[in-house]
Amino acid sequence: MKPFCRTCHMSATVASHDFLEEDDFHNLKASINTDVCGAGHQMPQAEHVMRKFWNSGARAYLDMGLGLNSACKP
């Protein structure tokens, strides 16, 4: 997830949103499911990064790693 999320999130002003720890992903599981995997695909916000994310296997890792059973599943 580093090339898709960490670039922007490392400058987050809220510590739990910087994704420095694996728990940060798990604690934000519901938001990730909505913002990344939901119908709106609000994250990642950068167009190029979003295209790379959806064309990679990263979405499967995100879905399986967090147990989302979501639209992120390839």
Task: Provide keyphrases for this structure.
51% helix, 5 helices, mainly alpha
Detailed description of the structure:
The protein has 74 residues and is mostly helical. The longest helix is centred in the last third of the chain and has 9 residues. The model has no long low-confidence stretch (mean pLDDT 82).
Instruction: State the end-to-end CA separation.
Output: 15 Å
Quick check: average pLDDT?
A: 82
Largest sheet geometry: none
Task: Tell me roughly what share of residues is in helical segments.
Answer: 40-55%
Unreliable sequence segments: none
Topology diagram in text:
Blueprint: H1 2-9, H2 22-27, H3 29-35, H4 47-54, H5 58-66
Compact description:
The protein is mainly alpha-helical. Helix content is about 50%, strand content about 0%. It has helices at about 1-10, 20-25, 30-35, 45-55, 60-65.
